[in-house]
Amino acid sequence: MSFWILSGVHGYSALLGGIICLIPNAYFAYRTFAYQGAQAARKIVNSFYKAEAVKLGLTALFFGLTFKYVKPLEPLSLFMTFFIVQVVHWLAPLLMVEKQTSVK
């Protein structure tokens, strides 16, 4: 990102936005894929819902802690980077499928 060019505050605000998105999503992925196979279908569904709830809670907690303890902070850089990282998470599977189908 080019937020560092604007100022150090923009830079670390953007970094925090990315981290706020990354850590809860990494937790979600870790917990969701803890079980495998048809025998564990119920455990997979339960872990999915629990992991999603914890992910949302962690995201809210990290935003709250950031706004409470990080001063000065550039909220626009924080939210823009959070949004960009989130959109990349949503679009990456679509791009990978498109890339795989065009190779065949």
Topology (elements, then pairings):
Layout: H1 3-6, H2 8-32, H3 41-69, H4 75-103
Helix pairs in contact: 2-3, 2-4
Account of the 3D structure:
With 104 residues, the protein is mainly alpha-helical. It has one domain (3-103). It has helices at residues 3-6, 8-32, 41-69, 75-103. Helix 2 (8-32) crosses helix 4. The radius of gyration is 17 Å and the shape is flat.
List keywords for this structure.
104 residues, mainly alpha
* Rounded mean pLDDT score: 88
Through-space gap between termini: 33 Å
Q: Sketch the topology as an H/E string, one letter per element.
A: HHHH
What is the share of helical residues? over 70%
- How large is the radius of gyration? 17 Å
The computed structural class is mainly alpha
Give the CA-based shape: flat
Low-confidence stretches: none
Proportion of strand residues: under 5%
Number of domains: 1
The overall strand count is 0
Please tally the helical runs, counting DSSP H or I stretches of 4 or more residues: 4
In brief:
This protein has one domain.
